[in-house]
Design brief:
It is a single chain. The chain is an all-alpha fold and 116 residues long. 74% of the residues lie in helices and 0% in strands. The radius of gyration is 18 Å and the shape is elongated.
Length: 116
Amino acid sequence: MCPQTRRISPASAAGAQAANLIALLVTAVANTALNRRLTFGIRSTGRLWLHQAQGLAVFAASLGLTGGSLALLHTVDDAPARPLELGVLVAANLAATCLRFLLLRTWVFGPQQRPR
């Protein structure tokens, strides 16, 4: 079958969603821990579990943004080219990174959380 006529099944779209979920989940906990220590200067163990729980909520928002972007792409084009799918994910992840930093700075590690 020619690559131009090859159709990508819904299972392939689900595979992209699963890969996206795993990639974001694996980095979420480490990202929160590193941001807590290096970016926001919080070295104590106080509120560690709260910060991680809030970090997972931020992860959920990021997943919603990236997963929603993939879902929208697969709604518009049921068999998008891999480079297009990758481009959508790169753009969505850039937006998710900005959202994540904003939420970490204002909500998770807001001024009341930072050392004085």
